[in-house]
Write a structure and sequence with these properties.
By secondary structure, the chain is α+β, with helices and mostly antiparallel strands. Helix content is about 40%, strand content about 10%. The radius of gyration is 21 Å and the shape is elongated.
Length: about 110
């Protein structure tokens, strides 16, 4: 049987349908600059279940250089970097983008 004559299995058809749906949904993401007014949306993304990697770095890992300095005993690197990112946002020049699906911040 030639490839063109093969029929897709139901699993293959389902997978294609899911992939097409994901592509269609991905196209519905609106992207906006990270501004002070959108800071709560960024927090919602980083505090979402399963977002432990971003919660630890707060998008600052590539913005800092040099060796890690000692932290005061009552704080964490994540808290320091979160405050540093907030300071960048509040400075007025958006340091990044936020993606929304409808009204929900998703990335």
């Amino acid at each position: 049987m030639h490839r063109a004559q093969r029929r897709r299995s139901p699993v293959g058809q389902r997978r294609s349908s899911i992939e097409a749906s994901q592509v269609e949904n991905a196209a519905k993401i609106d992207v906006h600059p990270l501004t002070p007014a959108r800071w709560p949306d960024l927090e919602a993304i980083f505090e979402a279940k399963g977002c432990s990697v971003a919660l630890g770095c707060w998008c600052m890992a590539y913005r800092v250089s040099g060796s890690a300095s000692a932290l005061p005993p009552d704080t964490t690197r994540a808290r320091v970097w979160r405050a540093a990112l907030k300071a960048l946002v509040d400075a007025g020049r958006p340091p990044g983008l936020i993606g929304y699906r409808g009204q929900k911040p998703v990335g």
